[in-house]
Amino acid sequence: MGTNGSTMLEPLRQGLPPLDPAAVSDAASCSLPAHYEAVREARQFTRKTCDRWDAGDRFDDVCLVVSELVTNALRHGLPAGAPRPAGQEAPVRLHLMRWTGRLVCAVRDPSHGSPVTREADDFSAESGRGLLLVESFSDGWGWQPMRGGRGKVVWALFLLRPPGGA
């Protein structure tokens, strides 16, 4: 678990609302293993990070969105049955970044495919509804391909209330 989010900011510049990458006040990231226990690990990491950053008023929303983004990365972003050579970086990585009044969670995976949402009334769909939750519980979301064809980043933006503010 590192705290360097600067490498994540480059692919986010295009898709995010205007935020100065140099003005990030806090950044944290963690590698996630390619199994579904990673969703629980991502939630625990998010809880600790939000507590440290005093972003607790949005924790429930952020945690739900992180769970959905990590689940999608594991389900759709990893090649089926592809072994990972020893020593290679974990295929999925969660990044949390905070600006004054804003928090961004971003999940990187090796897939080149774009995230696909399903219609809200398509209850027979096995997947795709998670992005509707992401859209509902965040203040904005999007995705960007990584430079050099190294996968993609799916991100969600949360507006934070000022401490003690309304």
Compact overview of the structure:
This protein is 30% helix and 22% strand. It is an alpha+beta fold and 166 residues long. Helix 2 runs antiparallel to helix 3 and helix 3 runs antiparallel to helix 4.
Would you kindly provide a written description of the structure presented here, covering whatever features stand out?
With 166 residues, the protein is α+β, with helices and mostly antiparallel strands. The protein has four helices and five strands; from the N terminus they run H-E-H-H-E-E-H-E-E. A five-stranded antiparallel beta sheet has the order 1-2-3-5-4, with helices on both faces. Helix 2 (37-52) packs antiparallel against helix 3 (59-76) and helix 3 runs antiparallel to helix 4 (129-137). The longest helix has 18 residues, at 59-76. It is globular and about 45 Å long.
